[in-house]
Amino acid sequence: PTKVTKICCIGAGYVGGPTCAVIALKCPHIKVTIVDLNKARIDAWNSPDFKLPIYEPGLEDVVRKARGRNLFFSTDVDKAIQEAELIFVSVNTPTKKSGVGAGFAADLNYVELATRNIANVATSSKIVVEKSTVPCRTAESMRTILEANSKPNCRFDILSNPEFLAEGTAIQDLFKPDRVLIGSLQTPEGISACEALAEVYANWVPKERVLTVGLWSSELSKLAANAMLAQRISSVNALSAICEATGANIDEVAHAIGYDTRIGPKFLKASVGFGGSCFQKDILNLVYLSESCHLPEVAAYWRQVVEMNEYQKRRFSKRVVDTLFNTITGKRIAVLGFAFKADTGDTRESAAITLIKDFLSERAFVKVFDPQVQHDQIWMDLQEASPLVPLDHIKKHVSISGSALEACKNADAIVIATEWKEFKELDWEEIYKTMNKPAFLFDGRLLVDAAKLTKIGFKVTTIGRPSALPV
Ligand code: NAD
Ligand code: UDX
């Protein structure tokens, strides 16, 4: 197989950045160049004081060790492509907003542009690795584009190597992956390309964790893994609604069923709804794929996972309004957390966006606090969620606080939207004193000790527990 000495990664985002930074750290003999068209992003990766464009625990340390040694960030996409023997395509693949498949299919425009870029500038053979999450058989389109545009003596082998890291734990996940999946054509050339990439991972991943499969299985496995994970959350969230209606406690139910080794304890936490850039997008992608394969029952099955998630968010907003005597007009609501999960500054598809939008449509006043999310990002997300409302108007009803304490001052209700650990450790006695009474608290993340807070005086409502009964 090709001996990989130089790697190029196209796309310096949440996946390309951390993934290839870790490759550089673990493979000091390989030169890794991460490129992006977005200059601001590259400048941030190169910033002298390590103000990196994404927040991820442990990432700064990795970049400090490898940057300038064998890890480089650049906007010179062409040069990095020409130098490398192996190229990761790690660009965004968002849900299409218009045209055929709008609202479901993945927008493959960025993948196609990156692929054409490779074909146009490459002067030697390359292994091209699909890192982005793509629909089944995208590798075939990539190969057709590459072969139709290549120069003589340039051979392109395409691999699929989906990424399974979760945000907030990306570095840990990359250091010790459950598995690395590599898909290739089952031809001698395909298998040899697969071996070249496997050798890169072999620098730190035990051999038995590197799985090699066919290309289409690899592509589909990524969509399948996310669909199964999201389905677990929608299942537990559906059960949380039953708990609220019957007096059962979702934490106890999840604990009890998780003891079954066939079910397992992880990823059973009821919540205000899953967010993040992947789950919804990838399930919708799977729904589209199912429909394209004339499998409407299969499509409907997976679509329900997303519908249950929407229902969970709606149900939670409604519970807030119902509990606050059926009106929140003019009331002050502190929203703690804006990121889609703890330990990230990422807000894509965050449940907090939907909740705040709902509170605004009831004409409540919202104060939001998140320890990581940039203020500009919050305004952009709220504007995008309510495109017809001028930002000035949104800003009359929403403000961003510098601390949780400040957000909760004079509030009628607190809503915990993200499970930041620091919210667990707030001085709740102090917060209680500064709030309007009755002081309501809605825990959308099963984060705080409801019994303790009730003792302080809070009226606590928790996901997956009935409102009327004592906690
Ligand atoms: P992102 O939006 O953070 O980053 C993508 C980057 O690619 C952007 O900075 C963009 O400017 C750049 N880009 C787009 N087209 C380009 C081109 N032609 N040349 C150079 N740069 C280009 O996206 P992300 O979150 O890193 O996701 C990337 C892919 O990985 C997606 O397919 C996603 O589904 C998948 N994925 C994401 C996660 C996650 O947790 N975010 C996890 C697993 C897989
Ligand atoms: C997910 C997959 O886990 C990862 O393997 C894939 O590569 C990308 O998509 P990510 O979206 O970063 O990762 O985070 P994840 O931890 O999966 O959480 C997704 C959402 O589900 C978050 O909003 C989280 O709060 C929510 N969640 C997760 C729950 O509500 N309950 C749970 O038990 C777990």
UniProtKB/TrEMBL annotation:
<feature type="binding site">
    <location>
        <begin position="222"/>
        <end position="226"/>
    </location>
    <ligand>
        <name>substrate</name>
    </ligand>
</feature>
<feature type="binding site">
    <location>
        <position position="167"/>
    </location>
    <ligand>
        <name>NAD(+)</name>
    </ligand>
</feature>
<feature type="binding site">
    <location>
        <begin position="11"/>
        <end position="16"/>
    </location>
    <ligand>
        <name>NAD(+)</name>
    </ligand>
</feature>
<comment type="similarity">
    <text>Belongs to the UDP-glucose/GDP-mannose dehydrogenase family.</text>
</comment>
<dbReference type="InterPro" id="IPR036291">
    <property type="entry name" value="NAD(P)-bd_dom_sf"/>
</dbReference>
<feature type="binding site">
    <location>
        <position position="262"/>
    </location>
    <ligand>
        <name>substrate</name>
    </ligand>
</feature>
<feature type="binding site">
    <location>
        <begin position="91"/>
        <end position="95"/>
    </location>
    <ligand>
        <name>NAD(+)</name>
    </ligand>
</feature>
<dbReference type="Pfam" id="PF03721">
    <property type="entry name" value="UDPG_MGDP_dh_N"/>
</dbReference>
<dbReference type="InterPro" id="IPR014026">
    <property type="entry name" value="UDP-Glc/GDP-Man_DH_dimer"/>
</dbReference>
<feature type="binding site">
    <location>
        <position position="445"/>
    </location>
    <ligand>
        <name>substrate</name>
    </ligand>
</feature>
<dbReference type="InterPro" id="IPR036220">
    <property type="entry name" value="UDP-Glc/GDP-Man_DH_C_sf"/>
</dbReference>
<keyword id="KW-0560">Oxidoreductase</keyword>
<feature type="binding site">
    <location>
        <begin position="278"/>
        <end position="281"/>
    </location>
    <ligand>
        <name>NAD(+)</name>
    </ligand>
</feature>
<dbReference type="GO" id="GO:0051287">
    <property type="term" value="F:NAD binding"/>
</dbReference>
<dbReference type="InterPro" id="IPR008927">
    <property type="entry name" value="6-PGluconate_DH-like_C_sf"/>
</dbReference>
<dbReference type="GO" id="GO:0003979">
    <property type="term" value="F:UDP-glucose 6-dehydrogenase activity"/>
</dbReference>
<dbReference type="InterPro" id="IPR014027">
    <property type="entry name" value="UDP-Glc/GDP-Man_DH_C"/>
</dbReference>
<feature type="binding site">
    <location>
        <position position="41"/>
    </location>
    <ligand>
        <name>NAD(+)</name>
    </ligand>
</feature>
<feature type="binding site">
    <location>
        <begin position="163"/>
        <end position="167"/>
    </location>
    <ligand>
        <name>substrate</name>
    </ligand>
</feature>
<feature type="active site" description="Nucleophile">
    <location>
        <position position="278"/>
    </location>
</feature>
<dbReference type="Pfam" id="PF03720">
    <property type="entry name" value="UDPG_MGDP_dh_C"/>
</dbReference>
<feature type="binding site">
    <location>
        <position position="36"/>
    </location>
    <ligand>
        <name>NAD(+)</name>
    </ligand>
</feature>
<feature type="binding site">
    <location>
        <position position="348"/>
    </location>
    <ligand>
        <name>NAD(+)</name>
    </ligand>
</feature>
<keyword id="KW-0520">NAD</keyword>
<dbReference type="InterPro" id="IPR028356">
    <property type="entry name" value="UDPglc_DH_euk"/>
</dbReference>
<dbReference type="GO" id="GO:0006024">
    <property type="term" value="P:glycosaminoglycan biosynthetic process"/>
</dbReference>
<feature type="binding site">
    <location>
        <begin position="132"/>
        <end position="133"/>
    </location>
    <ligand>
        <name>NAD(+)</name>
    </ligand>
</feature>
<feature type="binding site">
    <location>
        <begin position="340"/>
        <end position="341"/>
    </location>
    <ligand>
        <name>substrate</name>
    </ligand>
</feature>
<dbReference type="GO" id="GO:0005634">
    <property type="term" value="C:nucleus"/>
</dbReference>
<dbReference type="InterPro" id="IPR001732">
    <property type="entry name" value="UDP-Glc/GDP-Man_DH_N"/>
</dbReference>
<dbReference type="Pfam" id="PF00984">
    <property type="entry name" value="UDPG_MGDP_dh"/>
</dbReference>
<feature type="binding site">
    <location>
        <begin position="269"/>
        <end position="275"/>
    </location>
    <ligand>
        <name>substrate</name>
    </ligand>
</feature>
<dbReference type="InterPro" id="IPR017476">
    <property type="entry name" value="UDP-Glc/GDP-Man"/>
</dbReference>
<comment type="pathway">
    <text>Nucleotide-sugar biosynthesis; UDP-alpha-D-glucuronate biosynthesis; UDP-alpha-D-glucuronate from UDP-alpha-D-glucose: step 1/1.</text>
</comment>
<protein>
    <recommendedName>
        <fullName>UDP-glucose 6-dehydrogenase</fullName>
        <ecNumber>1.1.1.22</ecNumber>
    </recommendedName>
</protein>
<feature type="domain" description="UDP-glucose/GDP-mannose dehydrogenase C-terminal">
    <location>
        <begin position="334"/>
        <end position="450"/>
    </location>
</feature>
<dbReference type="GO" id="GO:0006065">
    <property type="term" value="P:UDP-glucuronate biosynthetic process"/>
</dbReference>
